Amino acid sequence: MNQTAGTVDKPLIDRTERAGSVRRLLLLGGCLILIAAGLALFGHAYGGLALIVTFALAGVVGIIALFGLALGLVSIGSRADEGAAARSFLDGARQGAMFIDVKGRVVYSNSAYGRITGISAGPVHSLEQLLARHPEAAEDVYRLANIARGGGSAQRELRLNRALNGMSDQAHWYRVSVRPIRGPAGVLEAWQIADITGDRREEESSFRMLQNAIDYLDKAPAGFLATDADLRLSYVNATLANWLDIDLAGFDPCRIPLLDFLPETAASHFLSRCAALPRDQALSTDLDLVTRQGRVFPARIVLKTVEDASGRPALRAIVVAPGERSDASGGEGAEARFTRFFNSSPMAIASLDASRKIQRSNAAFRRLFGDAAADGEEAVVSALTEDSGERLSQRLEGSLNGEADIPPVDVTLRGEKPRSVRVYLSAMPDSGGFEDERAILYAVDITEQRSLEEQFAKSQKMQAIGNLAGGIAHDFNNVLTVITASVDFLMMNHRSGDPSFQDLLLIKQSANRAASLVRQLLAYSRRQTMRPRMLNLTDVIADLDLLLKRIAGDRTRLERRHARDLWPVMADIGQLEQVITNLVGNARDAMPDGGTITISTRNVDAEEAMAFGQVEMPRDDYVLVEVADTGTGMPPEVAERIFEPFFTTKEIGKGTGLGLSMVYGIIKQSNGFIYVDSTLGEGATFRIFLPRFVVEETQGTNTNGNKDIIQPQAKMDLSGTATILLVEDEDYVRAGSVRALKMKGYDVHEADSGIEALEKLQELDGKVDLVVSDVVMPEMDGPTLLREMRKIRPDMKFIFVSGYAEEAFAKNLPEGESFGFLSKPFSQRDLAVTVKQMLDSKD
């Protein structure tokens, strides 16, 4: 705008007034014609001189007014003033303005338009015409014109290779806009143009300065970071990004937590230091950072808290790596290394003053003893139980008095889950510049160690009991074998109607029950593995009825509900009995005030089994055993861990935490599944799913004092004439076995040791059809005897007799070795059936 005060530049062209005057003159002519026509038509009709005079005066007044409006001498309201003000604003505007009518003629352009475009005299060309001469702007201008003709508005910033006014050959930037407006001459296109080259150069200069600053930060030998109020990284420079393995191309501000780059051991300590840092005060600390690749590198961080846009505290920090510090090998470097070791140490370390409050502490101490003790807000003993606090206070007294060789003390920390801590103390008579520090405390969390020690002691105790149980069970099996054989002999001489027969039958049943208890002892000592038999669960639970009632106690009601035609299952009867008794015992303990225990069995087909919703259980037919109680129940978090080893909810001394884990293992070994359904306060139900066993027509079951479901072998011929060598170190067991086999017609030779058995074999010139041998014997055990006999007779048939499972000694034999097995205690029929089957086998 080239003007002085009160003077406005004249526009280059202004046809808007002339167009308005022409319209007004035309309007005036029309009015005169209408007046003349009115006088001509109506004057003679009314014939009144007054009327003619009235029309004449009105016409004169109208003509004078119209001439005044046309000449601008008369205005209506303030419209003339408003129009003059608007035109004055356009005439003096710094932006070039131009109006084009519907015919494309320029009806107005201000002086700024002339200065920007270089037009000072002659015809005024439109912007569309001027910019069309510049190829780099022609397309954009064409689009602007089409938008305006369609009734729309638009704006573009155009870059021309040279100035539009021709005064410079350097590139210039222009902002061009267009919009339609309605004026006295109709709809016009209002174009505006502004030279924004200076603004663009200022922006480019600012951008270059910003880029230089960013480049300086990115290439600085230190890392820079900023976080938001939630400690998420809002900025990192290239140096720090390189150290932390952050890809800046994919960096998204305020998405990555700063704590992702701190070790877990240092995170809580760092947070507490930041929380205690006053606003706008710097803090310097040495700690380890963890990169995205998991590498650890030490760094010194200088940080301060600032307010973000919302007034919340955020962090700004400088990170310096050791290799970038000039003082890395000097005194400050040594201090930095010490600080790093101090803060990253897994052992809790703290210094105490004379009042037993903490002066300095590391992250491990804060995690162990809590923020209050670490910040010195309370004495360290306040974090301990009462008795532990007294023990530590006594040791602290000695360290504060400068005593040496203070023995460590084990203390217990307060909390929902008390933790065991071993504390070491050392005196600081010479504080080395830290006059408030009088003692150093070192602490190690030994909770897990204590737990392992207790478990080890418990396992040692259990192993000792197991060894004792195993030894007793071995001897007990020999006794039961003699009892069983003797009862069999006696029952052969008594008819079922004999009064003594029932007594003998009771002795035999008791011996069978004792044999089952021995198997449980062997299982406890881990010397008995699964020996599955085909079982009817209704019969198994019925046989346990008296025992289960004793386990349940007088205050508990025991109910049994069994479905009819129960499918058979394959399981070890002794271990299955252990499962039932354990579940009943646990149900009793869950009802201290008494209640009801219900044991039920029924068949569950594949479709119903799937309805239970257990994903790991395959679609199959099962026999379901449920043990339900009306006790206290258990919360979900307990139910999830109920089968874990050593997990127990009972008081110390009332449970080992092994019962249900053994139950789980037994059911899994039987190819079954066990689940618990419980609600706190509503009791618990344990469900056992055992796969249905499909019986072959020719299949029977080996008897081991257990009831057979089907016994097609009962009528088989158990007699024979083969030569048998029986090896047993127990005289009574050997005598009963020899007698039983001779009664079946066999030629039996006996030996009381492995060495004697080899001598007998040589005496018989190796003419022995079968060897029946005990496993555990003095001088030479059964497996050694088998290996020696294989040297003489490679095809010798061999049966081992033992109270232990065959897997317990089979590992001492060559792989693939073939032999039979008979478990103690056994009846006459068990022995005869096993011998007959072995002799009839092709191997």
Range of helix content = 40-55%
Structural category: alpha+beta
The poorly predicted ranges are 1-7, 76-80, 697-714
**How many individual domains?**
6
CATH superfamily of the largest domain: Histidine kinase-like ATPase, C-terminal domain
Distance between the termini: 121 Å
CATH T-level fold name of the largest domain: Heat Shock Protein 90
Using only C-alpha atoms, the radius of gyration works out to 53 Å
EC number: 2.7.13.3
Transmembrane segments: 25-43, 49-74
Modified residues (4-aspartylphosphate): 774
GO biological process, one term: regulation of DNA-templated transcription
List keywords for this structure.
Beta-Lactamase, 6-stranded antiparallel beta sheet, 843 residues, 26 helices, alpha+beta, disordered N terminus
Question: Quick summary of this structure?
Answer:
This protein is of the alpha+beta class. The chain is 42% helix and 21% strand.
Q: Can you describe what's shown?
A:
The protein is an alpha+beta fold and 843 residues long. Helix content is 42%, strand content 21%. The chain is built from 26 helices and 28 strands. A six-stranded antiparallel β-sheet has the order 1-3-2-6-5-4, with helices on both faces. Strand 9 and strand 10 form a beta hairpin. The longest helix has 46 residues, at 447-492. It starts with 12 loop residues before the first strand and ends with a helix.
Question: Which secondary structure elements does this structure contain, and how are they paired or packed?
Answer:
Elements: E1 13-14, H1 16-46, H2 49-71, H3 79-92, E2 96-100, E3 106-109, H4 111-117, H5 127-131, H6 135-149, E4 154-160, E5 172-183, E6 186-195, H7 197-218, E7 223-227, E8 233-236, H8 238-244, H9 264-275, E9 283-290, E10 296-307, E11 313-320, H10 331-344, E12 348-352, E13 358-361, H11 363-369, H12 371-374, H13 386-400, E14 409-413, E15 419-427, E16 439-445, H14 447-492, H15 499-524, E17 533-535, H16 537-543, H17 545-552, E18 556-562, E19 569-571, H18 573-589, E20 595-604, H19 606-611, E21 622-629, H20 636-641, H21 659-669, E22 673-678, E23 684-691, E24 723-727, H22 731-743, E25 747-751, H23 754-763, E26 770-774, H24 782-792, E27 797-802, H25 807-810, E28 820-823, H26 828-840
Parallel strand pairs: 18-20, 24-25, 24-26, 26-27, 27-28
Antiparallel strand pairs: 1-3, 2-3, 2-6, 4-5, 5-6, 7-8, 7-11, 9-10, 10-11, 12-13, 12-16, 14-15, 15-16, 17-19, 20-21, 21-23, 22-23
Helix pairs in contact: 1-2, 9-11, 14-15, 14-22, 15-18, 17-18, 18-21, 23-24
